[in-house]
Structure formats: C-alpha cells, structure tokens
Design goal:
Blueprint (H helix, E strand, L loop, with lengths): L1 H12 L3 H12 L3 H10 L7 E6 L6 H14 L4 E7 L11 H5 L9 E7 L9 H12 L4 E5 L6 H8 L2 E6 L6 H4 L2 H6 L2 E4 L7 H18 L8 E3 L8 H18 L1 H30 L3 H6 L5 H18 L1
Parallel strand pairs: 1-4, 1-5, 2-3, 2-4, 5-6, 6-7
Length: 319
C-alpha cells in the first residue's frame, strides 16, 4: 500500500493529472493511501494562490469562474478549480453541476476541474476541499480556485482556506446586502457585482458601496477593497477581476500576510482532522449502548457527549 502511495505522489509531483485525480479520490474517500500521499506532498506546497469565490445562489459564480479561468489561461497561468457542490443524499458525492458549466476547459491540460461534495459539513467545506487544494498546489498550479455552494457556513469557511476571497453579488435578489452574509462582508478582499446588465444594478452597487464604506469606518486598519462589475454571461469583467486578484497577492507578499494566511490554513486543517479523528474514536469507544439511554431520557445529550469524551481519554491513557 505504501509503495502505491509513493508512486502516485511522485507522478503527481511531476504533474500527472491522473495521479492527481487518484490522490484526491483517496483523500475524499478517507482511504489511508490518501494520507500517505499527502505526507510526501506537503513539503512541496505553499506556493499557489488559493482564491475563494462565494456569494448567494443565483449570483452566477460558476459562469464568473469560467471566464476568470479563461483570462488566467490567456496570461499563461495554470489553474485548478475545486467546485464545491451540494452532496448527493444517496451517494455523498458532488452533483457535478459546476463541471458541466465549465466544460469548455475540459481538454485544456493547464486546467484541472474537480467537483467535491460538502459531505454534510453543515453547508461548509469538507476536509477534502483543503486537501485537494494542497494536491493542486504540489502539482504546480499557479491558481487554485475554490468555488463554494454559497449557502450557510461555507461562505465563512472559505475565508480560512483562501488567500484571496472574492464576494459575488447580483441584482434582483431583493435585499442584496442581506443575501451576502455580514461576516463575509467583513472578510472579503474583492467584491464583484455580476449580471451588471440587469435592472437594479445601480441600486445594488450603491448598497455595496455603502456597506464597504461602513466597513472602512469600522476597520480603518484594513486596506480598501475594490468593488468591480461583470457580466459573466457575455465574458465581460474578467480582466479587471484577475488584475485585482494579482494585486492582492502582491499586497499580501509585501505585508508578509501571504505566509500568515498559510499559517491560518494549516491551523484550520489540523483542527479539522483532529476533530474528525476524535469523533471517530468516540463513536468506536461507545458502540451503540449509549444512544438507547438518551432516547429513553435516562441520560441527557450533554452527559452522553461527556461520557464519549471520557471513554476516549481512558483509552488513550491505557495505551
């Protein structure tokens, strides 16, 4: 098993797309070989710029991602896209809608598009998303795009993963500012109003300008962020957005923040993996005996959870 993982790791470092796909599959399936591959790759990571693209459903994130990929490729940069789709309730896999919308890049060897399911992470990003970003980084891709579902916690989670977070808004959703979570408004690095040819664009742009003005007053230490426009369905706006993403990377390096964001990503990954391991051990330690006690109201959920944790600690002490 170790030999197979080493072979995949070496092929992956040489840029083999098939090896990259295999490694991500192992990681997503929690196959032991995935972790073995990642241990070989990890020293070769930390170079790619991870760009998160998020916003409410219907904002046109996939179409925008598509034209950004085309612009990066025009500039000679290699791009990987992780399209985070809702998980299928039957298979746990991704619905694959985003890969369909970006099909024109399918034959380009400088583009790798991979859909990943949320894996039931309360609407957030699964651990596999972080790990896939590392795989693409090790393969030498210049840009790794993480396009989120745009519902719930993933809008905040992507900030912990990305160096640069692009927030996409769109006219016609009613209260556009409410449609973009307040927390992500504070954390976004670049803001884009897509579908700028729609009725209501000016009102949406003014709302965004007001929100960013209030943010600047509340956080004067933060640099000003660009507010850009696009009509992704017509291929308009990609050049300005890619310029802004490149400028943000330069700003991060100049301020020493690129490394700091890598540190935040590393911390988030370690915590996520530790949480998952602890849960697995807790469930293994308890068996199914504790749940009937809770169901029968003889034991409350908090006490049950503490018993699970105590069981882990006892097992750890015994070994």
């Amino acid at each position: 098993m170790k030999a197979a993982a080493d072979e995949i790791a070496q092929r992956l470092l040489a840029g083999d797309i098939g090896a990259g796909a295999r490694a991500i599959r192992w990681l997503d399936d929690r196959d032991q070989r995935g972790g073995e591959v990642l241990s070989v790759l990890y020293p070769h990571t930390g170079r790619a710029q991870v760009v998160g693209i998020t916003g409410p459903p219907g904002a046109g994130k996939s179409t925008l991602t598509d034209i950004l990929v085309a612009e990066w490729r025009r500039r000679g940069q290699r791009v990987a896209v992780i399209a985070v789709d809702p998980s299928s309730p039957f298979t746990g896999g991704a619905i694959l809608g985003d890969r369909v919308r970006m099909a024109r890049h399918a034959l380009d060897p400088g583009v790798f598009i991979r859909s990943l399911g949320t894996r039931g992470q309360a609407g957030g990003l699964s651990r596999s998303t972080h790990e896939a970003a590392l795989v693409f980084d090790a393969m030498g891709y210049d840009i790794v795009v993480v396009e989120t579902v745009g519902v719930g916690q993933d809008e905040i989670d992507v900030v912990n993963l990305a160096h640069t977070t692009v927030i996409v808004a769109v006219p016609g959703l009613g209260d556009e500012i409410q449609a973009v979570k307040a927390g992500i408004m504070e954390a976004g690095d670049i803001f884009v109003v897509n579908k700028a040819d729609r009725e209501g664009f000016e009102a949406t742009r003014r709302q965004m300008e007001l929100m960013l003005h209030l943010r600047a007053q509340a956080m004067p230490e933060r640099r000003e962020v660009p507010l850009l426009t696009a009509v992704a369905s017509r291929g308009e706006g990609a050049q300005g957005i890619v310029d802004a993403i490149a400028a943000h990377r330069d700003q991060l390096h100049a301020a020493g923040d690129f490394g700091r964001r890598n540190h935040l990503r590393a911390r988030e990954q370690v915590v996520s993996i530790a949480r998952e391991i602890l849960l697995e051990r807790a469930l293994a330690a308890s068996g199914d005996a504790i749940y009937p006690e809770v169901e029968a109201r003889r034991l409350d959920p908090y006490s049950a959870a503490r018993q699970l944790v105590d069981a882990i600690l006892e097992r750890t002490a015994a070994t």
